[in-house]
Amino acid sequence: MKKYLSFFLKLAVSATLLFYLFRQTNFDLLFQTFKQVSPEWLTASIMVFFVFQLVSAFRWYEILKVLGFKKNVSFICRVYFIGMFFNAFLPGIFGGDLVRIFYLVKEGSSKTVASFSVVYDRAFGFLGALFLLLIFVPLEGNFIPAHTRHSIFYFSVTVLALTFVIVLFSKFWQERLGNNLAHTLTLVLKIKNFLKLFYLGLAVQVLYNIHVALLGKSLGISIPWLKYFLIIPLMGILASLPISLGGFGVREGTLAYFLNLLGEPKEMGIALGFLTYGVALIGGAVGGYFYLRGDRAKDNN
After folding, report:
1. Mind listing the pLDDT tens digit for each residue in 93-139?
2. Tens of pLDDT along 250-264?
3. Per the UniProt record, which residue ranges are transmembrane (predicted)?
4. For position 180, what pLDDT does the model report?
5. Alpha carbons 68 and 66: distance in angstroms, whole number
6. Domain spans of the chain, in order of start
7. pTM for the full predicted model
């Protein structure tokens, strides 16, 4: 019952946000924006999209390896893309993260390791986004209202600083937390492991920003490329909050707001949001292929 209530609440939030956006949308301009998409830039963006998804899958593989679950990288990539399939085509109904946990447990992982591997995967993506905000809010954030800019910057500084303090005192947490949690936490917080996973998280964020910047180029958006390294981490963080259905409405509204601050029509931001999701559907389709293959995709290694 709670699951369905959550689904309908998220649906209501997304529908409300999209209704509000569409009330202010010039649909002739929106359709014209889609009609002028450059195939060359779109193709380049799709190529970068798959690179960043493969790096994301590799990050998850490295997290699992640190936690002691050893499965070959091709299996982890397939499960990762299957999770994308559920996130892209069934948002809010069957969470892709739950599907990933299910596959790991089916292959012999403990529920603790499977669950925390996904939590850590999300966490390192979040930290990578915050690190970009830490760099690019001072460099490129002059178009954002001062109080908002300062709030974003100090939030990023605080979370990153606290995280590194926790890493430095990982033995302290090991002594005070339950065995299973302490074990998974201490493994990830070892400085060598943490830095490797942090760098991978940052690489994923950089590639994601390049992917969306190329999509923006395909639509004819003329903002400086470095602005994306501020806008997209914010968009990604807000869209990933569990308040909407697959980020619908939040993603488009965030992009419309920030691009409008930079002098672009709101329709450009809405188009970029939908195009970003459209490319994600391609990745989801790849995951759907692996899912439909079923046991034939199973690895015994």
Report:
1. 557 899 999 999 999 998 989 999 999 999 999 999 999 999 999 99
2. 999 999 999 999 999
3. 7-22, 42-61, 81-103, 123-140, 152-174, 194-216, 228-250, 270-292
4. 60
5. 5
6. 59-294
7. 0.90
